[in-house]
């Protein structure tokens, strides 16, 4: 049995040695050597292709489970998303200022209101405003008790006055 595979000159010596080695073997030994080579190739494909794909698939499934859990928590009213140790502490104006800075929002004015603390925001994207309010409620004991949101000149932007109370 002779191997006839087109190859580069660098592999010519190896191919010749392999052909010579196979030529002195019996048909039974040649079949066993071929079966062993097939098993080795299958094992290498399993290790280098299939196993990494299975690992990536398992990681993706874990991420999907995590996302589904977070979605279920959000649908249930966002309870339990922030561990008790992660709550912001301090005076309401400090909490609002810290959260606004983290959200990339600048507060025009923070002051006392009749039932809590009033935050006045100028021209701010609506989605950032909602994310900021959500962050304040999730990371502190403050809750929105009153909000006045008006459309700004730029599309998607608003002016807002939000009153928070504990």
Describe this structure in words.
With 166 residues, the protein is an alpha+beta fold. It is 52% helix and 21% strand. The protein contains four helices and four strands, in the order αααββαββ. It has helices spanning 12-23, 27-75, 92-103, 126-139, and strands spanning 107-113, 116-125, 143-151, 157-165. It has a four-stranded antiparallel sheet, covered by helices on one side. Helix 3 packs across helix 4 (126-139). The protein is rod-shaped.
Topology:
Layout (H helix, E strand, L loop, with lengths): L11 H12 L3 H49 L16 H12 L3 E7 L2 E10 H14 L3 E9 L5 E9 L1
Antiparallel strand pairs: 1-2, 2-4, 3-4
Q: SSE order, as H and E?
A: HHHEEHEE
Strand content: 15-25%
Uncertain regions spanning at least 5 consecutive residues: none
Radius of gyration: 33 Å
- The helical percent reads 40-55%
The counted number of beta strands is 4
Strand order of the largest sheet: 1-2-4-3
Major beta-sheet overview: 4 strands, antiparallel
- How confident is the prediction overall: mean pLDDT? 87
Shape: rod-shaped
Separation of termini? 86 Å
Name the structural class. alpha+beta
Number of helices: 4
Brief account:
It is built from four helices and four strands, in the order H-H-H-E-E-H-E-E. It has 166 residues and is an alpha+beta fold.
List keywords for this structure.
single chain; 166 residues; alpha+beta; four-stranded antiparallel β-sheet; 4 strands; 52% helix
């Amino acid at each position: 049995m002779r191997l006839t595979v087109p190859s580069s000159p660098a592999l010519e010596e190896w191919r010749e040695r392999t052909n010579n080695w196979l030529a002195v073997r019996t048909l039974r030994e040649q079949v066993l050597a071929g079966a062993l080579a097939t098993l080795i190739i299958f094992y290498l494909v399993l290790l280098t292709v299939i196993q990494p794909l299975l690992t990536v698939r398992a990681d993706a499934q874990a991420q999907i489970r995590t996302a589904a859990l977070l979605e279920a928590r959000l649908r249930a009213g966002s309870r339990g998303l922030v561990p008790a140790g992660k709550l912001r502490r301090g005076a309401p104006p400090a909490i609002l200022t810290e959260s606004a800075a983290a959200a990339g929002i600048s507060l025009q004015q923070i002051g006392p209101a009749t039932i809590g603390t009033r935050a006045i925001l100028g021209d701010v994207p609506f989605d950032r405003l909602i994310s900021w309010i959500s962050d304040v409620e999730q990371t502190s004991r403050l809750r929105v008790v009153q909000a006045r949101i008006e459309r700004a000149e730029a599309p998607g932007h608003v002016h807002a006055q939000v009153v928070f109370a504990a």
